[in-house]
Write a structure and sequence with these properties.
The chain is of the alpha/beta class. Helices cover 35% and strands 26% of the residues. It is built from ten helices and ten strands. The protein has a six-stranded mixed β-sheet with strand order 6-7-8-3-9-10, sandwiched between helices. A four-stranded antiparallel β-sheet has the order 2-1-4-5, covered by helices on one side. The protein starts with 6 loop residues before the first strand and ends with a helix. Bound molecules: adenosine-5'-triphosphate. Adenosine-5'-triphosphate binds next to strand 2 and helix 1. One of its GO terms (molecular function) is branched-chain amino acid transmembrane transporter activity.
């Protein structure tokens, strides 16, 4: 018998004003699992994450996290349950130092990483702790964005394209960090266009097309049949 899902998204639809973007998305993620959302630009991956954390309020269906339905909850209520969202644009405050950025969001739940643990996990952030946000490389900004949500006590991490715009060697480093987080028991949903990166870290892949789930495959299934997923992505 499989464990109850950590997050269970059921027939989720969501709108930007009058424009419907999600059309009945259904998928789940198990405790400790790393799931990717893959699909073409505009498929609705980012919108799915934004709907989960309540940044899109106009949504129907069910989003159950540890049994509680998030539909109708406000973003701060959802964050308090232990869900951390790392947006694609990373949202690092350029006028603040690394340390100030890190300490900006409140601790919402017990069990979050301490400063010492964070700097152990992200040694290059320690070296840069007094630097301003603007002085950071893209990779360092991405690490800071992840570190910041780990401090809040989130246990379910929603990461939107952490590899985007980064050099291969940095992508590899981010991949190692994500693997370590998974080993520590975090549950992770990763939006990812980079299939190579997705394969390196994930347990399962959910393919999104036109605001719907069109396929779900295990990492082994993906590795055995890259053509299947490439046909969806049109690559
Ligand atoms: P990408 O990788 O390009 O971000 P995605 O799969 O994450 O792709 P979304 O960003 O979720 O796709 O976009 C899904 C659809 O919603 C697209 O058609 C997009 O044009 C539309 N959309 C996104 N943001 C808004 C917005 N703020 N207002 C209206 N429509 C939007």
């Amino acid at each position: 018998e499989a464990a109850a899902p950590s997050l269970d998204v059921c027939d989720l639809s969501a709108w930007y004003a009058e424009s419907r973007v999600l059309h009945g998305m259904s998928f789940d993620v198990r405790p400790g699992e790393l799931l990717t959302l893959i699909g073409r630009n505009g498929a609705g991956k980012t919108t799915t994450l934004r709907s989960i954390v309540g940044l899109l309020q106009k949504r129907t269906g069910a989003i159950r996290f540890e049994g509680r339905d998030l539909i109708g909850m406000r973003p701060f209520e959802i964050a308090r349950l232990g869900i951390g969202y790392c947006p694609e644009e990373r949202a690092i405050f350029s006028s603040l130092s690394v340390k100030e950025n890190l300490f900006l969001p409140p601790v919402l739940k017990s069990g979050g990483m301490t400063e010492t643990e964070l700097f152990e996990t992200f040694p290059n952030l320690k070296a840069r702790s007094a630097s301003q946000g603007t002085k950071l490389s893209g990779g360092e900004q991405q690490m800071l964005a992840i570190a910041r949500i780990l401090r809040t006590g989130a246990r379910l991490l929603l990461l939107d394209e952490p590899s985007e715009g980064l050099a291969p060697v940095i992508v590899k480093e981010i991949g190692e960090i994500i693997k370590r987080l998974k080993a520590r028991g975090f549950t992770i949903i990763l939006v990812e266009q980079n299939l190579h990166f997705a394969r390196l870290v994930a347990d399962r892949h959910v393919v999104v097309e036109n605001g719907k789930v069109v396929d779900v495959m295990t990492n082994a299934e993906l590795a055995a049949d890259m053509g299947r997923v490439k046909s969806y992505l049109g690559v």
